[in-house]
Structures are given as structure tokens and as C-alpha cells.
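On clarity, I found the account of how folds are encoded harder to follow than it need be. For illustration, here is how one protein appears when written out as sequence plus C-alpha cells:

:::
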Amino acid sequence: MKILIIEDNKDLAQSMSCYLEREHYICECVYKYHEALERLSFNSYDCILLDIMLPDGNGLQLLNHLKKEKINSGVLIISAKDALDDKIHGLEKGADDYITKPFHLPELHARLRAVFRRKKMDGYNEVRFNEIILNTDTYEVSVGEARLEVTQKEFELLLYFLVNKNRVLSKQSIANHLWGDYTDNLANFDFVYQHVKNLRKKIGTAKGNDYIETIYGLGYKFNALKYKGS
């Protein structure tokens, strides 16, 4: 999962980022409203951790922006203890959940996973498509009766394809989703090809269908219409 943390308390933002990165998330932190707008203009995120009170704007305004631009990220509001109105307004404007400061990081993680399941996976911890099954709790992949031995990045890549079925994903968007802003200054994204190639080979070895298509000059697409029963 790729997370954007919007929180003006830098110590808290870094604490959340470090914890979630240990849980294998890609995290990016911004500390101001306009920094958040800039990131959202160029990148996509599975979930957003949103502080309501920012030094140069209001998190509720950011929720309006998400709705206007049809950005489908899950949103978990980080609110002050006595900010009941902000919580209510945030939920009314489309936020998925809220957590009150101070909070324990394991609770934040649990709520974040719940938001992701509701938003991207219809409330389940498994993603199923024909013969392919991914379990986001155990990081296991099965093709039919066969268990695939996949790396963490291969798991994340397959999950990214499955929640974006029939959409063309550029090499840059794949790289950015899996490795975050570490890829911003790279001259090319040819390394994505090797990860896709390895994943396709493992699925094929397990007698799975090859749903991943190369769209020359653009990137890749998980073609959910390619085989009967999709």
C-alpha cells in the first residue's frame, strides 16, 4: 500500500512513516496543505492520513479537492481529541474513518488496513480473480492449487494489477507506486520490466493464465477480459 501522510507535526509524521514502512508500506510525508496538493497532482495513493489543522489550509478543503478531482484514495482523518465537529464534517465530505490523537500506532495500522479493504477489496482480506488468490494478511499468492513463491515486490505488483484491472499502467506509475518518490530522479524504469517478467513466468509455471499484457510505448495492462470466465 502506498500512503501519503499529511501532518504538520513532523515528529508524529516521521513516527507514523517509520512504523508503517516496517510493515512494508511505501510512505511519503508532507507538512502543509499546498505541499499535499502538489503531491496529489502528480502521484496516486492507496490511502491518505489527513490532519485537519494545517498551517496553510484545512484538511476539509483537501477532502473537497479529492472529491472534485475524483481521487479515489482512502482517507483516514487524524483529529484532535476535542474536534468532534471536524470528524463529523470530514466523514460527511467523504473521509472513510478517523483516529483521535494521541493514538497507538498498531491501532492506526489496523484502521488503515480496514480502510484499504473497504475501499479496494470490498471488505475482504483476499483478492480473487479466476484462478489467482492473494491474501493481504499473509502475503501468500495461489494459482489454482499451487502456492507461488513470490517476493514482496512481486506480491505488491500483482495486487496493483488486480485492483486496477483493464487499466493501462505506465512503467513510471508502477515504479512510483512500488518504490515511492525514490524513483523521481531515475532516467528510465526498465527495471519494472524484469519484475513483470518474473511475475508472469511464475504464474505461467503454476499453469495460470497470462493476463498481463504489454502495451508498447505505454506500459502494462491486466486484461480481465482476456480469458473465458473473467
Observations:
- Residues 117 and 124 are 6 Å apart (CA to CA).
